[in-house]
Amino acid sequence: MQTTSKIGNNSRSMRLIFGLILISFHSYGTIRSVEAFSTVVHTHMTSFRMQSEKENIETKHVQLYNRLSTTENIPRVEISKLKASMSNTNHDEQILLKEKIEKMKSYASNISRHRKQQDPHTNHINIDFSVNEYDRSSSIERKHNDLSDTSTYPAIKSLLHSIRADIDILAKCSTVPDDYFDKNVWYEFRSYFNRAIIQAIRASSDNGDYVMIRKIVESAVEYANQIARVSNEVKENGYDQDLVLLESRIFGEAITEMGKTSAGHSKLKKMWSIFMSLDDSILATPPSAFELNSMITALANRGKVKSVINLCREVTGKDGDADCKIKSDIYTASALLNMLAESISTTNISIIRSIDNTKKSSLDSPCWQWNEAVSILKEFEKEMTLNNQVYSLMLKVNEEAMDLCRSSGSFKHPATKNAMSILDRMKKFKVSPDVVTCNAVLSTFNKGKQWKAAIAFLRAMERSQTEVKGDSGKEWDLPCPNIYIYSSVISACAKSGEYEEAMKLLDEIRSKTELPDENIELNTWIYNSALAACVPMKKNHDEDKQCQHEAAQDILRRMELDVGLGLNTKPDTITYNTLLLTINSAAKFRGQKSIQVESQGENVKEQMVIEVLRTMDDKQIPKDVATYRNAIIACRGEPQSSLRMLTLALKEINEIEIDLSEWGSLDNVKAYLLNSSLNICQESGDMETMTKVFHLFVVNKVTADTQSMLNLVKGLSASGNCEDSMKVLNSMKGDGAANEEIVTKYGIDILSLGFDTFNQMIEEKHYSAAIAGCLRDGQLFPALKILNAMKIHGLKPKSDSLQGIIMAYCKLATEDAKMEFRVARKNYGKSKPKGPVFHADHTTSKERASAALAMMKSMDNIPSRLQCAVASACAATGMWVEAREILWSLHIAAIKEKKREKFVFDVDENEKGSALADLPKLHRSLLKLCARSGNVTAALSYVDAIQDLQRKLDKGIYHIDDAPSGDITFTNKTNILDSWNVTDYSDVQQQKYGGIGMDGEKWKLLIIAASKSAHWRVCVGTLPFIQPYVEAIHPSNASKDKGKGTSMRTLNREYEKLSRALTAAVLSFEVRGQYAWAIRAIDDWIQWGGRRPAKEAVISTCRILAKRGIGSEVVSLVNKVIQVPDHLRSRRRSSVLTYETSYEMAVYTETITALYNRGLYDQADELYVSAISKGFLPFSIVEESSTMPEFKIDLHGMNKAIAHSAVRVSLQHFVQSKTIDELERDVIIITGKGNKSERTLRPVLRPEVQRMLTEEFYPPMSTVSIRNNLGALRIPVSDVNSWIKHQEEAKGLRFLAVADVLKTLTSGQKLQRMLKRNMKRFPTEETESK
Fold first, then answer.
1. Any transmembrane segments, and where (predicted)?
2. Rounded mean pLDDT of the chain?
3. Which of 1006, 1027, 1016, 1110 has its CA nearest to residue 1069?
4. For 404-437, how does the pLDDT look when each residue is reduced to its tens digit (9 = 90+)?
5. Chain mean position to CA 1158
6. 329 phi and psi, to 5 degrees?
């Protein structure tokens, strides 16, 4: 009976189902969602067959009603009948868990089947994260209204309806059927429930509906909460099993699929918050790395890099929190590093910042993403053993950082060093790199042009294979190099100009192909890679470009040779296209050995191009558009040749392989080639050839485009006709009169090219190019005229174009200011006024700087680099207040950047700037301009602002002060020095790249500004600030190991740069007569630097002391300085000492001159004796012989001061070197004829010596000329003896002491040796006359 009843119930259900189908078909003619409805029927029939004894037909009716009520186009009347028939069903008993298992099975299979049948490309929403979240939400809502058209939507809605129905039932109950506590049944239900939820989430993602995903997850969480509540209540009845429903994977799937939609990061974070708020009564499995990785990927795709890093460290406990909720895995590390690499590739260069000195290490970089990647790598290495994928991504971050820093041009990223460090870490943790990792390392070497490192790495890979064969238990080794590895090494050699090494590697590969054990084979691809590296760059020298072309030809010959050997190295179209690009710069070298074909008008470049094209025809190698485009470019600098190549290309246009799917039409190809030729013409400014090219537009019925007109505008500027740019612009707008003028002058009919009043095709870039050309030619008025016309016609310059205009104004203002400064300095030298400072008239340059400032203020979101340029232009023209205002705004931007960097991780792209990167250069520029003009007031103001910014950034103070006052004044310029702190730095590299704060170079510029304005107190107060930087380059800090650490040569170079500060300070002391401070500065500088102070500073100090009459201090100072070891001597290259090359000769000469000018003859003589005793000044006595019976004093090459001391000391030497007290012969003084004087045969020394002997020697000594020798004077012996006798009586012991020194130095054989040595070192009269 039970079986019969069961069959009867089933029969009634079957009749009801088919009845509904017939009614629906009869009422509507068709079923809108036939597949969905048939699926319901199929699922219902299947559940009947699998129904257990405890199941009843009433429960099946409920299931059928739930499904049909969510299926569209089923008549509501029939569903109402079904509901009425079910009203007699007993609802007191809940649906058994096994029944729900079948429901979840049907939902999961139903949704999965429809997802496979549905085309994901038709329903998926295009994601655009550039729009705001509101707009994306609106688009989703609009899409959500149309989701009923998809086949998965009814099934998803049915699943949600079923879950809501169960939630309502559970909410009214305090117990559940007993089978809920059957572990096997419960685990089966949980598995199919989670599977159905996941399928519904994925289907919603296919439709781009993140709102539906959120509803599904929220319903599942609420359902799990109700079951957990009932489970807790029935525990009291003896059940000890917790009914935990949800698996953590649901949230991972939800976040992953939401990431594929246009959901904003706030929606993702909300889903993550729901997930993290659940406990183990809801989640059957704890949170895992899968959910974390899903969140990382989703947020990374939205550019929330620092949010991801912060979230990861928070949930994994890497932020110091011991409560670790999720354990990360290797994929987590991979996702984080890949995110950092992708963020670098899309990063604006402006966010590069300089390295913090206090955190600098061997792996630090200006790129913060790299520094963050290093930190992440170290954290994961402590927890697990990483794989090659992680380290490859680390190398990718390194490479992207190198590209970014290289693009900035101001910062350096140690990419090669970092790549080797990564390999060292892999070896440390015993992770053997694979070929992909090694190729990433070589890619870094390739971009960095580290060809030696690339070859060394290749050899290490080859050696590793030999070692592996001998040691099978080796824990770390390198893979066997393949063809891609060899290609990377060849490319690195070629880019570095090491073409011989590249050829050797090619030969090596050829030899390996003959070995049976080597799986390496040469092909066209590897040869083309080597050829691509032979394309010359703009920065290459001409000789390098010639070598590159020769290497390319050699590679081509090798390819053809290998073809004969049976290798797959046949040159193809790419091969010859690349070869064409190497012709341009190499042609002129070949032209020196070739004869031009004058009859055809061809030059060397054209001959070489034709040879390549002819070779392609002979070998039947197809040509493409790039072939003729490269042929035209190869004739750069020769517009006529490029025109002939263009004509040839248009003639053979139908024979070229053209992919119309890429180009659209044949006319687009023609326009591309025509514009390539126009580009060559505009670079050369050849308007005649450009006219012929435009004529080809008309002949070939090709419409010119905006690029064609841009080339025309640039060509006018290059030809010096920038004033006609306005006419071209008007012609492009349909102005017939302007067009007639262009036709008359150049023969170019713009209106016939497709431009008229209705089809103007004029863009902002045309105006900007015209303005830039006018400014480049110094035509300011036409530039302003074009700018006004641009505004009248409603065209607003784009940000980039306006920046270019402003930069051009700044350049003009700076150049004019420089010329005005030179004129002022020249006039200052002519008038010889008193005072160290002169002022330039900046009227013209100030107008241009003011115009640039006004245009900059009209912009929004002004880039910091542009502000720096305007600030420098203002300072160069004397607009110090305006420059300080811009500096203050940049300091505010820097503080905001630093604050966002520390506290805010999701920074709007529009708010990102580069103030931290651009400020160091601006600070140096402003202080340099202050030093040039001698404006110490402005310099102090700028330094005060710099010090304040550095203090705030170091201490983390992000308070923004009020704007500075409108003027720059200091009542006491030394008071401001007291508010600054002297910072001790010990690393010279930190001083050089010390960021935005003050460094040694900037302190030097402040001292120079103070020196020029004679503010000696500012110099005194500033010297302590430069002390740490001088101490850092002490010789003791030089590395003794070659190639390691800082070399002595580098330290000496830095010392010479900073020595200018001491010279400037001492010069200011000289102006103010502060000799005590000058001596103190010299002594301190010797102690700080461990080297001799600058000779200019020593000479200036000696002048101060001589002026004060303190000759003994002069002698003491000179002796002290000379005793200091000369660490700069190694840089001298001249073997003969001169005033310019010898530090000692310059100091002695100028010091003796200063003493002589002040009448301190005794001290001058003492220094002269010291100088000749050490060989730094020539000894004036010529050795007497049988042919020269007289005593001779040679004064060649001496000034009057040295000559004065030379005569005095020499006369006394005659007495001391003889056994008699008086001379017996006349003294001959050789002065020279004046052949090397400024005015030939107008001697300076001869009359000066005569005057000196008469006026400055007592008793006076007379002189007579020597017959037939105008370059010598004779002093009678009687006058000489009288002078010597008077000196002995008057000066007594002091003069005799000097004479004793001479006697000791020059007695006997020692005197002879010294004289011979001096005669060889210093040229004699005969050698000079020659």
1. none
2. 76
3. 1016
4. 877 665 567 788 888 888 988 898 888 889 989 9
5. 57
6. -130, -170
Residue with tokens 């290797």: 330
Phi, psi angles (nearest 5°) of residue 636? -60, 135
Give the whole-angstrom CA distance, residue 1169 versus residue 1164: 9
User: CA-to-CA distance for 191 and 200, rounded, in angstroms?
Assistant: 14
In terms of C-beta density within 10 A (0-12 exposed, 13-18 middle, 19 or more buried), how is residue 1098 classed?
Answer: buried
- Are 890 and 868 in contact by the 8 Å Cβ rule? The answer is yes
**Position 1070 pLDDT exceeds 60:** yes
Give the three-state DSSP class for 260.
coil
> Tell me, what's the pLDDT at 11?
45
* 694-721: pLDDT as tens digits: 999 999 989 888 899 999 999 998 888 8
Region for 878 from its dihedrals, namely left if φ exceeds 0, alpha if ψ lies in -120 to 50, beta otherwise: left
Percent of the chain with pLDDT over 90: 15
Is residue 808 within a helix (H) or strand (E), and if so which, with residue range?
A: helix 799-831
Structure tokens at 716: 């006018």
Find, among 1227, 1222, 1126, 1123, the residue nearest to 1174 by Cα.
1123
What DSSP string describes 123-146?
Answer: HPPPP-TTS-HHHHHHHHHHHHTT
* Integer CA distances (angstroms), 347 to 393, 397, 1222, in order: 17, 12, 89
Query: Per-residue confidence at 527, pLDDT binned at 50, 70, 90?
Result: confident
pLDDT, tens digit (0-9, with 9 covering 90-100), for 1199-1250: 888 888 888 888 777 656 554 566 777 888 888 765 544 444 456 678 888 8
Which residues, 6 or more positions from 851, have their beta carbon under 8 angstroms from its beta carbon?
809
Residue 992 above 60 pLDDT? no
Contact 371, 312 (CB under 8 A): no
Nearest by Cα to 1237 from 1208, 1197, 1273, 1264: 1197
Cβ–Cβ contacts within 10 Å for residue 274, how many? Answer: 15
**Residue indicated by tokens 């079986």:** 3
* Percentage of the chain exceeding pLDDT 70: 72
Strand positions, DSSP E, 1207-1288: 1227-1230, 1264-1266, 1269-1275
Given the structure tokens 């090709």, which residue do they identify?
A: 702
**How is residue 248 annotated by DSSP?**
T
Judging by DSSP bridges, how do beta strands 1191-1194 and 1181-1182 pair with one another?
antiparallel
DSSP letter (8 states) at residue 1271: E
The distance of Cα 1242 from the centroid of its chain, to the nearest Å, equals 60
Question: Smallest Cα–Cα separation from 1118: which of 1192, 1174, 1069, 1191?
Answer: 1174
| Residue 734 and residue 755 in contact, taking contact as beta carbons nearer than 8 Å | yes
Separation CA 196–CA 115 (nearest Å)? 13
pLDDT score, position 81: 44
Distance CA 1021, CA 1030 (A): 16
Rounded Cα distance between 1003 and 1028, Å, is 11
Distance CA 547, CA 104 (A): 73
What mean pLDDT do residues 580-596 have? 57
Q: For 484-506, how does the pLDDT look when each residue is reduced to its tens digit (9 = 90+)?
A: 888 888 888 877 767 678 778 87
Whether the CB-CB separation of 615 and 575 falls below 8 Å is answered with no
For residues 146 and 158, give the distance between their C-alpha atoms in angstroms, rounded to a whole number.
17
Q: Which of 499, 508, 501, 500 is nearest to 481 (CA)?
A: 508
- Provide the CA 534 distance to its chain's centre, in angstroms: 25
Q: With bands split at pLDDT 50, 70 and 90, how would you rate the model's confidence at 757?
A: low
pLDDT digits (tens, 9 = 90+) for 817-859: 999 888 887 776 655 555 555 678 888 889 889 988 988 888 8
| Integer Cα distance of 356 and 366 in angstroms | 9
Locate tokens 């891609």: which residue?
484
- Using alpha carbons only, what angle is made at residue 846 by residues 840 and 847, rounded to the nearest 5 degrees? 140
Q: How does strand 1227-1230 pair with strand 1191-1194? A: parallel
Contact 749, 709 (CB under 8 A): no
